[in-house]
Amino acid sequence: xxxxxxxxxxxxxxxxxxxxxxxxxxxxxxxxxxxxxxxxxxxxxxxxxxxxxxxxxxxxxxxxxxxxxxxxxxxxxxxxxxxx
Length: 84
What we know:
Elements: H1 3-13, H2 17-27, H3 35-49, H4 55-66, H5 74-82
């Protein structure tokens, strides 16, 4: 994609696209039934988005994903983080 496209996203969101790409690459073979893996992803997304997640909210997100109630993707985690 056009580099200017990503620069515009970075300007509007304050999210470093390189961080997003690195996270996406790390998720390709991750086990989302593993609580430790899911917690790590939630913390990384929270850090990238600069949105703190309470322990209670993290537990709720982890339980939803590990138990199969929610699919694991950026959109799902972002929606859950923004509901706080």
